[in-house]
Structure formats: structure tokens, C-alpha cells
Specification:
The protein is mainly beta. It has helices at 82-90, 92-96, and strands at 10-11, 15-20, 23-32, 36-40, 50-55, 58-68, 71-76. The longest helix has 9 residues, at 82-90.
């Protein structure tokens, strides 16, 4: 039997810009891990769509794994650095410093 373990998810309320195949939108990170994130206020995307999260001058790319209403789950193509992951959990002040 193969077991799949979910990475620990950190709660967040970080606001950022998401680039989707149909344009850009403002979104909120609900939770985040090194492997991906749950976002809200994202609509018009489909399973498999490529999204880019704009965090100040840093871009994180991932693919949509699920959608439910205005919430989506994405898997990152490259994990964020530990510093960026920590900043997304705590807020933009951490990134700027």
C-alpha cells in the first residue's frame, strides 16, 4: 500500500497578485507549504492551469491541482526558499527587511 503524506501547511492571510491564463487578480493565501498553497479569490482557472504568484519582486510558479468556488490549490514547480515561505506566513514586512 502506497501512503501519501501531505506537507505541513502554515496558515496565512497574505495578499498577492496571481497571474492566470486569463489575466491577473488579487488573491489571498489561505495556507502554504513548501509544496504548494491554497488561495482564495481566484476564479476562471482550471485543473492544470499554470499560475504565477507575484510577491513583491519575486515570482512563484505552480499548477492548479484543484478548484472549489473561488478557492484553488496549487503545487509549486520549485519550492519557495525557507525565508520566502516564512515571510508569506508572517507578512510582507519580513520580505522587505
Amino acid at each position: 500500500m502506497i501512503k501519501h503524506f501531505r506537507r505541513f501547511r502554515h496558515p496565512s492571510a497574505f495578499h498577492l497578485v496571481v497571474k492566470t491564463p486569463s489575466g491577473s487578480c488579487s488573491a489571498t493565501v489561505v495556507d502554504i507549504s513548501a509544496g504548494g498553497a491554497q488561495l482564495k479569490n481566484v476564479t476562471g482557472v482550471l485543473h492544470g492551469d499554470k499560475l504565477t504568484l507575484q510577491v513583491l519582486d519575486i515570482s512563484l510558479t505552480g499548477f492548479v491541482r484543484w478548484t472549489r468556488g473561488d478557492k484553488v490549490g496549487i503545487a509549486f514547480t520549485v519550492p519557495p526558499t525557507p525565508e520566502l515561505l516564512d515571510a508569506l506566513r508572517k507578512g510582507a514586512r519580513q520580505i522587505a527587511n
